[in-house]
Amino acid sequence: CLKFYYYMYGWHLAQGWLSVFRKERNQAQELLFEVDGDQGQRWLSKVINLEDMYPSTEVIFEAVKGDGHQSDIALDTVSITPGFCSKQSEPF
């Protein structure tokens, strides 16, 4: 279970995005989550089930903020725990 908060706010985020990938050894990256543009001046939560986690499993966060200085992208309180997330799971 992957849980995290993200923040995406600003005028120049029209070309910005946040992507989360999963990568297993010797395999291509799998896109788990993607969001783009201004999401408002607030922290948002995301909960993602991660099936079949192995010691070699990598979780990759990729953020692109756009061309100008008036844009922010941030992550906070990232957590990975074994097993599935509960349906009503709040991040933390």
UniProtKB/TrEMBL annotation:
**What is a single cellular component term in the Gene Ontology annotation?**
membrane
Domain MAM: start-end pairs: 1-87
Pfam families assigned to the protein according to its UniProt record, in alphabetical order: MAM
Mind telling me what this protein is named?
A: MAM domain-containing protein
Q: Which PROSITE patterns match?
A: MAM_2
